[in-house]
Every structure is written in structure tokens, then in C-alpha cells.
Design goal:
alpha/beta, Rossmann fold, six-stranded mixed sheet, three-stranded antiparallel sheet, 9 helices, 35% helix, 21% strand, disordered N terminus, binds adenosine-5'-triphosphate, ABC_transporter-like_ATP-bd, ATP hydrolysis activity, nucleotide-binding
């Protein structure tokens, strides 16, 4: 996913914007095309999708089916060729209506972990005197309080992605968009981050839209899983998850027959939608 936005825009800003319920998403007849003439490509659409606030929506599908395109449209990095995208009842505004986490954490390597969070708080216009407390809360929330003073190049890839999540959370937007944020991590780190993200999302009231190729990841994280067809991406299947969000450990959940069944359903749907 590429954009020329500034860090302030990527990090998001305080307040949801729009006149609807904060965090809700509405896609109406959305199609996205790139190029023109013989080189025109329809990447996505038409797509109609309503996401109520608080949902953890996972977009899953084969490579090139348009997942990142949909996320860019919801972020407001692009406008649709046809149709309308609304977030919190209004036009999506980069840096205002959502926070975004990318596959590669976009951090300032020469700054400390705490310094990166401070910058995000500054972009979010958090008053200076409130920043130390907010920084401590955020680092605690993503399990990084012990590395606050280390520079980014001195911490692991998994820890860097935790910093990226904390930065996106700093703005307290009602919508968090995550584009394959754990894809570059080893399996164990990836599972730990999935568990932490799941825990952080529970009862937050925040809406999450998470893009992945992985049926495992989709089944573990989503309260709802939308499977896309191959390009142009359209909704092949919309699967609500009734896996418990609380009262069960991550290990119990991953070992449960219900999780195995959902993972299998999503895996089969992705395969069928890609053919
Ligand atoms: N700016 C662009 N110009 C031209 N084509 C584009 C552009 N952005 C995306 N596409 C094309 O649109 C299609 C969807 O791309 P997109 O990156 O959204 O898919 P994806 O599902 O996120 O893929 P992956 O899982 O591999 O990241 C692809 O065929 C891609 O080549």
C-alpha cells in the first residue's frame, strides 16, 4: 500500500469527524479503476458494505483482489471512481477519520520508542503536559513499557510493529485500519500480536478493518469476515463470527472446534472465490 501522505495524516487526529455514529463505515456502489484506455484496470467493485461501529471486520482474499484498494478508499487516501464511501457519516479524511497501520512500520528510526509515540500524540494535538501520561498508557497497552528509551533500530520487528499500533492508537480515532500488519513477522510473534490486538479491541468501541491473506488470522481476529472474489474484488461471502470475545484464553480459542470450523470455512471460501 502506498501513499504520499504525511505522518500526521497517517497517524490520524483526534475526533471521528462526520455527522454519523463515530466509526461506522458505508460503501455504496463502490468501484475503483486505475489507468485509462487499453491499460485500464478495474481493481474493485461494485461493492456495497455497511460496517456498524465497534465491529472487527477482516477483509480476506487472494493476492491482487483489491483488499488494500478498499482500505485506501476507507482511509480516504483515494476517492472511488464510482460510488460513495462514508466514514462516521461523512467523507473519509486521511488523518482525521482513521488511524492506519501498514505492513512495514513507518517509524522514525533515529528516535526512541517513547519519542515516536510523543510525535504521534503531538500530531493528534494532545496538550504537551498530558503526553507523558498518555505515552505511558499506550506503551503499557501494547506491552512496550520496558523499551521506552530504546531507539527503533534497537528493537525487534515485532516490537516495531507494536510501536506502529501504539502510534495509530495515539490519535484515539474511532476507526483503525490495518493492512497486513503482521505479515512480515515470524509465526510466534505474529500470534502474540494477534492476541494482543484482539485483547486491545475488546470493549474499545473502536471499529477495526484488518486486511489479510490468512484464514487463520481472519478467524482468530474477526467479529465478521468478508471474503473477496478475485479482481475486480467483490464480496463473495460475508461471514459473521460467533466465537467468544471474552472469558476464553487465546490458547483455548485456537484449540476449539468452533475456531477450526470457522478457519476451514474461511479457507475454503477464499480458495473458491479466487478460482
Ligand atoms: N495505483 C494503481 N494503479 C494501477 N493498478 C493498481 C493500483 N493499485 C492497485 N492496482 C491493481 O489493483 C488490483 C488490486 O490491488 P490491491 O493492492 O488492492 O490488491 P490486494 O488484494 O491488496 O493485493 P495483495 O494481497 O497482493 O497486497 C491489483 O491488480 C493491482 O495491480
Amino acid at each position: 500500500m502506498s501513499s504520499n501522505r504525511t505522518d500526521a495524516e497517517i497517524d490520524g487526529d483526534a475526533g471521528a469527524g462526520g455527522d454519523g455514529v463515530p466509526g461506522g463505515i458505508e460503501l455504496s456502489g463502490v468501484t475503483q479503476r486505475y489507468g485509462s484506455g487499453a491499460s485500464e484496470v478495474t481493481a474493485v467493485g461494485p461493492v456495497d458494505l455497511t460496517v456498524p461501529p465497534g465491529e472487527f471486520l477482516v477483509l480476506v482474499g487472494a493476492s491482487g483482489c483489491g483488499k488494500s484498494t478498499l482500505l485506501r478508499l476507507i482511509a480516504g487516501f483515494e476517492e472511488p471512481t464510482v460510488g460513495e464511501v462514508r466514514v462516521s457519516g461523512g467523507q473519509p479524511k486521511p488523518g482525521v477519520t482513521s488511524g492506519v497501520v501498514f505492513q512495514q512500520p513507518r517509524l522514525f528510526p533515529w528516535k526512541t520508542v517513547g519519542g515516536n509515540i510523543d510525535l504521534a500524540l503531538k500530531y493528534a494535538r494532545v496538550p504537551k503536559q498530558q503526553r507523558p501520561k498518555r505515552r505511558a498508557e499506550l506503551l503499557d497497552r501494547v506491552g512496550l513499557d520496558d523499551v521506552e528509551r530504546r531507539r527503533i533500530w534497537e528493537i525487534s520487528g515485532g516490537q516495531q510493529q507494536r510501536v506502529a499500533i501504539a502510534r495509530a492508537l495515539a490519535a484515539e480515532t474511532s476507526l483503525l485500519l490495518l493492512d497486513e500488519p503482521f505479515a512480515a513477522l515470524d509465526a510466534l510473534t505474529r500470534e502474540r500480536l494477534q492476541e494482543d490486538l484482539r485483547a486491545v479491541s475488546i470493549d474499545s468501541g473502536r471499529t477495526n478493518v484488518f486486511v489479510t491473506h490468512s484464514a487463520d488470522e481472519a478467524a482468530f481476529l474477526g467479529t465478521r469476515i468478508v471474503v473477496l472474489t478475485k479482481r475486480p474484488g467483490q464480496i463473495a461471502l460475508d461471514i459473521p463470527s460467533d466465537l467468544p470475545r471474552t472469558g476464553v484464553s487465546a490458547e483455548e480459542l485456537r484449540g476449539s472446534p468452533e475456531y477450526a470450523a470457522l478457519r476451514a470455512e474461511v479457507g475454503a471460501a477464499v480458495k473458491a472465490a479466487a478460482s
